[in-house]
Amino acid sequence: MRHDLLSRLKNETTACHTRLENSLDLMRDDLQRDEYIALLQRFHGYVAPWEDAIGARLPASLRAFFDERRKTPLLAADIAALTGQPATPELADASAALPPVDNIGAAFGSMYVMEGSTLGGRFIAPHVARLLQLEPGVGNRYFDGYGARTGSMWNAFRETAAATVPEAQYDAAVSAAIATFESLQSWLCVEPLEAPASSGAAA
Q1: Would residue 24 count as lying in a domain?
Q2: How much is the pTM?
């Protein structure tokens, strides 16, 4: 019974997950460096305010649990490594587009989307490194996520979610997960990705 929440999240977000994955199509072989940099900029614009919003919603007892999952620094490092300039979230900030997170269930539902992305990142990171001829750990740290710890971090998230979210908030968790997928879709895929003129992207 304890994993009913995770089963619902997986089953009821499959369509949203597939739609976003297909739209981004990060495993394609014609991904260009400028496209990739633009995508990292868009992710940075979403992840930074999202992490602030979720962090503010969680109780102090879960602060360390969440803080070790923050990935804004990884995105900033990737962008700096690829462009030679710091990330500029003010050019693209998704604060207004974030889904509402009104309770702990919604927080974990939204986290499910972002934590789950680390599983796919295990395949995206080496693909991007090979395609764009990146040095090890330079420019693909966001998608590499937790590296060798990805499996254990995902299991810890599942256990914590199952133990923390009351059954009365399962619907809120599912709704927030769907809303997170949809807001990511709108934010990342609203138009063809092009490197911002001010990004200083390397050719």
Answers
A1: yes
A2: 0.89
